[in-house]
Amino acid sequence: MARALSPRRKLITTLAAWSVALIIFFPVLWMILTSFKTEASAVAMPPQFLSASWTLENYADVWARSDYPRFFLNSVVIAVGSTLLGLVIAIPSAWAMAFVPGRKTKDLLMWMLSTKMMPAVAVMIPLYLIFQRLGLIDTKLGLVLVLMLMNLPIIIWMLYTYFKEIPGEILEAARMDGAGLWNEIVYVLTPMALPGIASTMLLNIILAWNEAFWTIVLTTTKAAPLSAFIASFSAPQGLFYAKLSAASAMAILPILILGWFSQKQLVRGLTFGAVK
Amino acid sequence: MGKIQLTQVRKSFGEVDVIPGIDLTIENGEFVVFVGPSGCGKSTLLRLIAGLEDTTSGVIDIDGKDATNLPPAKRGLAMVFQSYALYPHMTVRKNIAFPLKMAGMDQAEQEKRVERAAKVLNLSNYLDRRPGQLSGGQRQRVAIGRAIVREPAAFLFDEPLSNLDAALRVGMRQEISELHQSLQTTMIYVTHDQVEAMTMADKIVVLNAGRIEQVGAPLELYNFPRNVFVASFIGSPKMNLIEGAEAAKHNAHTIGIRPEHITVGDGPWEGVVGLSEHLGSDSFLKVAVEGLGTMTVRAPGEVHARHGDRIRLAPAGKIHRFDTNGLAI
Q1: What pLDDT is recorded for position B155?
Q2: Which positions of chain A have pLDDT values less than 50?
Q3: Helix, strand, or coil here: A39?
Q4: At how many degrees (to 10) do helices A140-164 and A124-134 cross?
């Protein structure tokens, strides 16, 4: 049963929650505000808020100076492509680990997760050289592959957690009812795990969209996504904060919209299994 | 048809022999109950027959054909699980029709069979509901419906009533028995509840540590238990087992007397009542008898004995005798 909170305690909790939320959101808010300031206002000291001069010029400049639609399209292809490819590999893997576990399944899962603890820079040179040899530098396929591999442990872990929640007896019932492996996955497992698969997909699209190490290291122009688009505004003439902020706002806007509309699904996905 | 024959069926998990080797024949149309304490291997045996577990060695014949290596779907059996195992995202109609759909049956025939099963199981008004909107008993009926429509060679029930409350359990027990009467199909039923076993079975298989202790009709097991284990497992309350001098008087290592075969009043044994339970139709007494230990007595009607009363008891029925190995003499 939920504990009843006193009004005073409720007020304090609410204020604390709002404070934490504001602290987390402040850089994003400041970035959005800066994107509407002139360059002079953006770098003024002390920082300007109400007295700043507001303009839409930064957005017009950024749009005119770069090929935003191309970067956007690259981001979509890379984020969605790496997530879908990851799911194709992760669904059977997670199925096997959840329903036909071996003695080493837990160790295997921990090992997969441990690869996420490795700093990306540690494998930058070998990976770069491999990509160079295979002709994958600055290709969308290369980025789809590398981001899929980077996020695969998370996709498998999330799906494994979802699949573990599905009672094994239901799948056995399907087997008794005459379903082969394919029908079992299509008619029983997938519909039951659909909320989990959807939230795994959403989270991984967001992770891939925001990835800014490999996307910058392994691309130059052709396959560069929006993260590289932002980076292109920080050099070489020096920093133009207002334009950089406008570019950043344009880069995060699509994913912010996606996240906003799917927040219920995301929260459910991230707390699945933890809250009953 | 639904004759099932097990020949030296063995199952081990790693180095643990769960079922060391079982021979058993289940005749067509029989209602067979596997009964035994938790961990005795009864569910494993059922799963081996179903094909949900692979046998380590041995042969499982279904209707004269070797089914040992057939996948579950190809064995022509239907199973009702303890947790019902209904598909939560499908309506009752789709749940029941699922095995027919998997068999590639045409839509009209599917509909006909679903309607017929629903009528038999009183589910006609619930066909468009999801399992989450049903009570425990209704869910169990859907699970049975899903099994019926396949017209299987045999039904396998894995403790199907253990999630239901006591009243509902009695009702469902009767429904399953009636279903067996009307279908005349082989049924194998796993339970740890010996009352279910006694009331439903044509034949009971008592299992202990993966071995068959005795196979027989309910009253055969009750009246002529082959060993101490069966004697103490079948019958409720449990048989009183006495060793020592009292047993020696009957030329046995152990003697067993059922609680209903002891009378209160005059008799050779004197003891103090520890616990008395009055059910109206019967009275259960736990009596600490000097030299024999605690004895359970089931007396018909009302017996006016309270905690601390001294009473005398007498054996008034069959005394079962067992040797040093626990086997019936």
Answers
A1: 92
A2: 1, 273-276
A3: helix
A4: 120
Distance from CA of B23 to the nearest CA of A (A): 24
Directed axis angle between helix A68-99 and helix A190-210, to 10°?
A: 140
A172: chain B residues, CB-CB within 8 Å: 52, 72, 79, 81, 85
Contacts 24+ apart (CB under 8 A), A157-160: A157/A109, A157/A112, A157/A113, A158/A196, A158/A199, A158/A200, A158/A203, A158/A269, A159/A87, A159/A90, A159/A91, A159/A93, A159/A94, A159/A193, A159/A196, A159/A197, A159/A200, A160/A94, A160/A97, A160/A98, A160/A109
**ipTM, 2 decimals?**
0.82
Please list the rounded mean pLDDT of every run of 10 residues in chain B (329 residues). 89 88 92 91 93 92 91 90 90 94 91 90 90 88 90 90 82 87 91 89 92 93 93 90 88 92 87 88 90 89 85 88 89
DSSP-assigned beta bridge partners for residue A273: none
Cross-chain Cβ contact A170/B98 below 8 Å: no
- Tell me how many degrees the CA angle A192-A86-A142 measures, rounded to the nearest 5: 165
Distance CA A84, CA A81 (A): 5
Q: Which helix (H) or strand (E) holds B311?
A: strand B310-315
Residue A189's nearest CA partner among A91, A97, A85 is A91
Neighbours of B122 (CB within 10 A): 12
The residues spanned by each domain of chain A are 66-271
Residue range A66-271, CATH number: 1.10.3720.10
Instruction: Say which residues have a Cβ less than 8 Å from residue A79's Cβ, sequence separation at least 6.
Output: A147, A205, A206, A208, A209, A225
Q: Which residues of A touch B (CB under 8 A)?
A: 167, 169-170, 172-180, 183, 187-188, 191-192
Please list every residue in chain B whose beta carbon sits closer than 8 Å to the beta carbon of residue A188: 87
Cβ atoms of A42 and A241 within 8 Å: the answer is: yes
Pair A105, A44: CB distance under 8 Å = no
Residue A225: Cβ within 10 Å count: 28
List all residues of chain B from 164 to 203 with a beta carbon under 8 Å from chain A.
Answer: none
Copy the structure tokens of residue B175: 């429904």
Quote the strand ranges of B138-281, DSSP E.
154-158, 186-191, 203-208, 211-216, 240-243, 254-257, 262-278
Give all domains of chain B, ordered by start, each with its CATH number. 4-230 (3.40.50.300), 237-322 (2.40.50.140)
Amino acid at B242: I
Whether chain A has a CB inside 8 Å of the CB on B72: the answer is: yes
Q: Which pair of tokens denotes residue A176?
A: 């008794």
Q: Which of B91, B98, B149 to mutate to test the interface with A (most CBs of A within 10 A)?
A: B98
- Find tokens 């994003």 and name the residue: A28
Of A40, A26, A69, give the one whose Cα is nearest residue A243: A40
Q: How many CA atoms lie within 13 A of B75 on its CB side?
A: 28
- Does the beta-carbon distance from A175 to B89 stay under 8 Å? no
Helix (H, G, I), strand (E, B) or coil at A8: helix
